[in-house]
């Protein structure tokens, strides 16, 4: 038993190496051995999943010496997918090892074992074959398909976490564990990319989640950890809102009720720091050098919210009207940013109705 526990204790190290620059030294045989270990760990999961005491012992060994580690016994069953995803995303993996990985993930039957990973592997293979020339690493055109694929993988793994939750288990404890797992996964990515992945995942989950369409908080347990991670940091949520277009944010706010108050609060904070220049006849930012919205961008964000579903539109208009009253309830331009925003939004909506 001790030898088995020692073998299982190698899993965190294997996953850590697969995400590091050390894979530059991997050749095809090394990659093959790593995949064999992953399949062996999956075999252990199937063999011991019905034995609670052994499951608990293996889970403890996985977390030994790693306080707060998101790994547990259930991750043994997805070891091949975890390893494959990490390696597909690792630009340091040499071409020969990458070809060996793609061959393994695209073999007959692989799609049935891990359909999301097989889909990502097909896209990776297609991008290698069809790309006319390398693009800059950070260019939006290069990242967009990859972000959507990563979002699909993230949602698939969250759904698996939800399905494998112990019946009758404490929801609060499970939610905290999923949040730690999501945070650990997303913090491995540069922030702009992590925020795009979360946005794409929320957008995809929204499209297939009728509970979210009816406005229930979180869009179900799958979206819940993503929203919690996003909203637990004001700085992170601010970066998220600065990064994404107003139309996408309005669409997400329409379907996820948790996003509406903090998004409106953030827009309010940005708007309150605009100053009016009577010589130029326009509003401008008072905090030079800070990442905030311009008057034009703020107007566009409120306009998108007021073009959304009736509930979102009503909440946004009510918020603007309340801010206008609190700021003096002026009816002429240049005295209150909220008066001017409300007038601009109403003008835009009237013009759309006339057309």
Give the helix/strand layout.
Elements (H helix, E strand, L loop, with lengths): L1 H7 L2 H8 L9 H21 L3 H12 L15 H10 L6 H11 L4 H4 L1 H16 L9 H25 L6 H16 L4 H17 L2 H4 L9 H9 L2 H10 L2 H10 L4 H13 L1 E4 L4 E4 L9 H12 L3 H17 L10 H18 L1
Antiparallel strand pairs: 1-2
Helix pairs in contact: 2-5, 3-5, 3-6, 5-8, 8-9, 9-11, 10-13, 11-13, 11-14, 11-15, 15-17, 17-19, 18-19
Helical region count? 19
Note the quaternary state here.
single chain
Rg: 24 Å
Q: If strands are numbered along the chain, what order do they take across the biggest sheet?
A: 1-2
Instruction: State mean pLDDT (0 to 100 scale).
Output: 78
**Uncertain spans:** 126-143, 210-219
Specify the overall morphology. Answer: elongated
Order of helices and strands: HHHHHHHHHHHHHHHHEEHHH
Biggest sheet descriptor: 2 strands, antiparallel
Portion in beta strands: under 5%
What's the total number of strands? 2
What is the helical fraction, as a range of percent? 55-70%
Give a written overview of the molecule.
- The protein is 68% helix and 2% strand.
- With 355 residues, it is an all-alpha fold.
- It has a two-stranded antiparallel ribbon.
- The chain starts with a helix and ends with a helix.
In short:
This protein has 355 residues and is mainly alpha-helical.
Keywords:
355 residues, two-stranded antiparallel sheet, 68% helix
